[in-house]
Amino acid sequence: MSREQLVSMTRRNITHSKNGTVPLEDGVKRIPSTNYYDPARWQVEMDRIFRRVPLVLGFSVELTEPNSYKAMDVMGTPVLLVRGDDGTLRSFVNMCSHRGAVVMEEGTGVTRRFSCPYHAWVYNTEGALVGMLDKENFGEIDMSCHGLTQLPVAERAGIVFGGITPGMHFDIDEYLCGYGEMLDHLDLANCTYVGKQSVGGPNWKLAYDGYLDFYHLPILHKDTFGPTYNNKTINDAWGPHQRNVQPDERYLALAELPEDEWQITKMVSGVWTIFPHISIASFDAGGKLFMISQLFPGETPETSVTTQHFLAVDAPDGDRLNIIEKQMDFLLHVVRDEDYYTGNRIQRAVKTGVKSEFVFGRNEGPCQRFHDWVEDLVHAETEADTAALFAGAGEFHHP
Fold it and tell me: Most buried in the list 8, 16, 165, 306, measured by CB within 10 Å?
């Protein structure tokens, strides 16, 4: 079924490329400009979006070995991802049950035991408390009740999804609305993790708008990669998750072949986004290189932090690693000095209140769809309401 969807999407791209057309939304959409800085609104977004829905916390290739782990901070919550001896991936709050110390420093590694740096309470890869310093003098406690606090986690398409609210439940397949099968075609599970870098930005929605918006490409990026792109978008959606691609004349070569000979690798170009905070784009850096931008809100409504993760197809050698390093430097420059430089200036300007609305045109359907979902989730009063939105989203459709 997923290959049939790719073929359908490619067929549509070929038609638009031949005709010089693009799909358009029914009308213009207006968003209150206060949505980008109002503290009360921002707090509701944190509570009803980022603390309720699955977030991308990492990638399977970061945790391949038994007993491998990744410790990270997610919006103020210390998280510990662990691959057990049994191959099962688990997630915990990275916080000792004794007196709250963070157990593992941020980073990755391999270990069978996690020892708290404060008083040396020891946990295994299943999160159980298995050792206590001076246990005989501590007093009577039930060690089975003092393990690490578990968090929900799931893997799909080489991507690690998790929640940061203890006790929350999610159905990852329902959340992805059929999108997981499409992400499988990117083959991220068989890539090599080659690096990461972070950059600060504006309000999380203001930053994310840029990943969904092709309208700005030849203008804002005129001195970098803009000249190789047009400003047109063909969009497909699976619930809130989207794939945006330009009318691509390279697809016209496929039109000369029978559809059963269309290679999947030739049909997966464009930008793939995972709501609410991930963008996946690919580049040529001596071979295919994925940049996966993982965007989290900052500590205030006016800030965000984006980590660019780089996954390479195949295992790159020394020469290719040099090419990848240069590409990483280039992409950091583009995002930091063009996208987020502009976004931070917008952030300052919008707070003047001079403009009460932002306007999204008929040609900016991906942004319109994103804000529709944000609005629906903000008004979902309970976790059940949130789950119902994804359950009712259906699967693939051509907007």
Answer: 306
Structure tokens given for 70 = 């990744």
Q: pLDDT tens, 219-250? A: 999 999 888 888 999 999 999 999 999 988 88
Whether the bond into 23 is cis, omega within 30 of 0: no
> What CA–CA distance (Å, rounded) separates 82 from 67?
7
Q: What is the dihedral of CA 10, 15, 19, 24, to 10 degrees?
A: -70
- What is the per-residue pLDDT across 342-378, written as a single tens digit (0 to 9) for each? 999 999 999 999 999 999 999 999 999 999 999 999 9
d(CA 220, CA 339): 8
Walk me through the domains of the chain, giving residue ranges and CATH numbers.
Answer: 2-52+187-397 (3.90.380.10), 55-156 (2.102.10.10)
What distance separates the 2 farthest-apart alpha carbons in the chain? 80
Q: Are 235 and 23 in contact (CB under 8 A)?
A: yes
Phi, psi dihedrals of residue 86, rounded to the nearest 5°: -85, 0
